[in-house]
Write a structure and sequence with these properties.
This protein is an all-beta fold and 126 residues long. Helix content is 0%, strand content 48%.
C-alpha cells in the first residue's frame, strides 16, 4: 500500500522560503515519478513540479521556474520541494503525487497520478 506523507507547510512572509517534504512508503521509490501539485483557496488543483523516475529529469510550471526546486533522496524515499522568494499567490494546499507509469508528455496532468498525500498548507502573507 503506497503512502505519501507531506510535511513542511506553514505561514511565511512574502520573500521567504519553505521546504516541503514528501515521505513515500510501500513502493519502489526509484521507479516512480513524483510531482507536486497545489490547490489555492477556492480554486482547482494545479501542477507545480515533477521529478521523473530515477531523477532523470525535472519539469516545472512557469510559476515555479527559478523559484522552486524539486529534488529526491532515494536513500530516504523522500521528495522535496524547496520554495524560495514566496509570493502571496503561492498560498495553497500542496500535494505530493506519485506514478509508476506517467509519460513525459502527460507529466503535468493530475489524472496521471494514482497515489496522493493528504496535503500540507502553505500560507504566504504580504
Amino acid at each position: 500500500q503506497v503512502q505519501l506523507v507531506e510535511t513542511g507547510g506553514g505561514l511565511v512572509q512574502a520573500g521567504g522560503s519553505l521546504r516541503l517534504s514528501c515521505a513515500a512508503s510501500g513502493l519502489t521509490f526509484r521507479r516512480y515519478t513524483f510531482a507536486w501539485f497545489r490547490q489555492p483557496p477556492g480554486k482547482g488543483r494545479d501542477f507545480v513540479a515533477a521529478s521523473r523516475y530515477g531523477g532523470t529529469s525535472t519539469n516545472y510550471a512557469d510559476s515555479a521556474k527559478g523559484r522552486f526546486t524539486i529534488s529526491r533522496d532515494n536513500a530516504k524515499n523522500t521528495v522535496y520541494l524547496q520554495m524560495d522568494d514566496l509570493k502571496p499567490e503561492d498560498t495553497a494546499v500542496y500535494f505530493c503525487a506519485a506514478s509508476s507509469g506517467v509519460i513525459l508528455s502527460a507529466i503535468r496532468r493530475d489524472d496521471q497520478y494514482g497515489d496522493w498525500g493528504q496535503g500540507t498548507r502553505v500560507t504566504v502573507s504580504p
